[in-house]
Amino acid sequence: MPSAVFPSQRHWPGRPLSAGLSLALALAAGSAGAAPLTQPELDRAARELKVGFAVLENGVTGDCGSGEGGCYRGELSLTAPHGLPPDGWALFFSHVERMRRVDDPRFRVEHVNGDLYRLTPAPGSAGLKPGETYRIGFRGGGSHLSAYYPMPNHYLAAEGLKARVIESTRPIVDPETGLEGLPFVAPFVDEAKLERRSPGDRTVWATPARTYAANAATPTALGAGPPVIPSPREVRAGTGALDLSGGLVVRLEGFDRKDLAPALAAAGETGRGAPLVVRRASKPLPLGGYGLAIDAEGVVIEASDAEGASNGLRTLAALRAAGPTVPQLAIEDAPRFGFRGLHLDVARNFHGKALVLAVLEQMAAYKLNRLHLHLGDDEGWRLEIAGLPELTEIGARRCHDLAEDRCLLPQLGAGPDGDTPVDGFYSAADYIEIVRAAAARHIEVIPSFDMPGHSRAAIRAMDARARRLRAAGDEAGAARYLLSEAADRSVYDSIQHYRDNTINVCQESAYAFVAKVVDEVAALHVRAGRPLKTYHIGADETPGAWIGSPACAALSKTTGVPVKKLGGYFIERVSARLAERGIVAAGWSDGMGDADARKMPAAVQSNLWAPLFGGATAVGRKQAGQGWRVVVSVPEATYLDAPNAVDPYERGYDWMSRFTDSRKLFDFMPESLPVHAEIWTDLENRPATVTDNGGRGARFDGVQAQLWSETIRSDDQVEYMLFPRLLAFAERAWRRADWEPTPASDGGPYGPQTQTFSAAARVARDREWAGFAARVGTVELRRLDQAGIAYRIPIVGAVVESGVLKANLEVPGLPIEYRVAGGGWVPYAGPAPVEGAVEIRARSADGRRAGRTVTVGERR
């Protein structure tokens, strides 16, 4: 008889339901009988308790407990050398999907909120006996395909004592690779039981042999790459080269130095050496476009605007990265899209100013020009707002405080203390510095605070503010910015399993709060010298809210808007207020689609995140047809929090894609979305069909890559997930390849049987990829090394055939090394005779970091 069976929950397979599996120990209900734990006893238990987590089987279709769809079988294990009493302590853990049942009557499991659960000994239990291992089987909804879903920093707590992190659950960092490991997670080794989401899933792990075969299918040729990344629109080669080893002397004609300072620094201005002239073009060039000419006399860059001149200087910097001499040539270049964006989530797990500044410089280097900075979500509020101190005092910290008087619940393995790197916020001065640094690189910062859903941090912070002001006798002030309604009896379960994360849109105080935040953020932009142009409200995922709200019942009666449609009402009203301030409202396509286009401002931005195989084309065509600016953000290709490979030891969520590597991003065709059905498979590696009901006609305004941070806790992990994949994204954002097909006018359908993407086009694509990969491996990764970027070192593809080790990489040029039977590392220079199991890995371009090791061959 299971000790806990959880009620059925709404499940939308297209989005993750919560933020990974982690354990935490927190305050339990009062105990009776056993002597309460003392602080020294709790401290010792935290030092000694061994916690384990194992996935036993994915793709289970029966015996899953309550809830829809399949599940997986997992196991928690606890070993306390000195035991733990039968009550007075509790175990809290979080989970990607709902934990549906626990198959151990000795323990009780309760869902707290979001990704936080509580495990306690069941009444009558003997607690944890000294040295005994307790294996607690359970069923988790969906699947659990990654060793990086569990969260670290589980902690022990007891009433009246200071909570302590359990030492066995702290993450470890390999000093050679810099990669994080979670030692309490059991190895993922049984491919047959663990690799698939469902019995019909055809996905297989990217083993070294499969990776070797995939790399060999598209060989790369050293030295055959484009002159720079992203590739220029037109290059005319000259003869000879110009030696720039002596530096550059710059003359500006028609441009201010302050508008080009970072680009001039990147290009290598020294005040001596060859002449470089940057001047206004004699004829109009496209926004962001430039001309660059290099001959024996020097370098000339022409542009019609400062962004174009900066882009030309960045191209010169990239040419110089290949060596002290640059080829004589002429380039005419302009961007494919005016909007070339990167979304960076610092709300779920915080990442500081230094990381953002480093990312901005790399965005400029690869000609991206929009930073969508996600500053507010359920798990955190990350920007100081004048007059609302609780937003950061409460909303920017997660700690052991179940009442949430001092901080938010400890989601995502944040731990009990509230002072770890994953907690924090940007001061007003920090944000102004970020906006100024972006503007100097011709990058627009688009701030994002998700509303009305995904707003728990703000809601809880404003509840705390109201308590403070009520205690001071200021009832009017307490109500001014409230985001919740005390009388609301709505029962709902958000995508990440919060039951209180949606702003009540039927109170005037909600709109006062939005106005206050927008006005304060806009003031920061003014102080930074770069007025706020676009504000992203999120607007997505508000299932079931407001159904039990008296305020919403009254508003519905007054306005005639059904309660279930009030999300659209909120979007329309906030968008109108933004337009009054000269600010464009932006949001995710699903939420923006709830608004009545006739009631929206003329200028609207919608991020098209609908899945390629789930209606993206139709949604994009419809919203573009409404006159909205549509930015392609489809998850299968542009979500860089997806794993780099189908490998349980690659970090990231896989609800949107089992893998997204550089090659997949290079192959992406943002203006030919339905044609991907001819070359890609669905989430379970099966052929799919897409119909483009809108046909041709609507044009998209841009493309944006997304990095969500639920599983990303450090700055190095951010860089690992972004690079080098962001280079392939930048290639497609900047330049439309000649091989990209145009969708047929009849709208399809498209699938493996159609040939819109011709065999000749595929050959041309593969040839371009070979050159692109060669450029990345031989030049661009060295540039990233020099910039201190902790990019992902590719996993080596390898086989042992007839006693001979053969190895290759997705990108050529990096050093490879191997070792046999515990011996020393040996450089791999080509096929090598070996015996037994062989460990093999690549190194960074500068040789200073090692990549992840894989093993091939048979153990003896």
From TrEMBL:
Entry EC no(s): 3.2.1.52
Keyword set includes Hydrolase: yes
GO cellular component, one term: membrane
Keywords: Glycosidase, Hydrolase, Signal
InterPro entries named among the record's database cross-references: Beta_hexosaminidase_sua/sub, CBM2/CBM3_carb-bd_dom_sf, CBM2_carb-bd_dom_sf, CHB/HEX_N_dom, CHB_C_dom, GH, Glyco_hydro_20_cat, Hex-like_dom2
Keyword Hydrolase: yes
Domain Chitobiase/beta-hexosaminidases N-terminal span(s) in chain numbering: 47-210
Gene Ontology MF terms: beta-N-acetylhexosaminidase activity; polysaccharide binding
One BP term from GO: glycosaminoglycan metabolic process
Active-site residues, as the UniProt record annotates them: E541 (proton donor)
Signal peptide from the UniProt entry: 1-34
Reactions catalysed according to its record: Hydrolysis of terminal non-reducing N-acetyl-D-hexosamine residues in N-acetyl-beta-D-hexosaminides
PANTHER family attached to this UniProt entry: BETA-HEXOSAMINIDASE, BETA-N-ACETYLHEXOSAMINIDASE
Family, per entry: Belongs to the glycosyl hydrolase 20 family.
Entry protein name: beta-N-acetylhexosaminidase
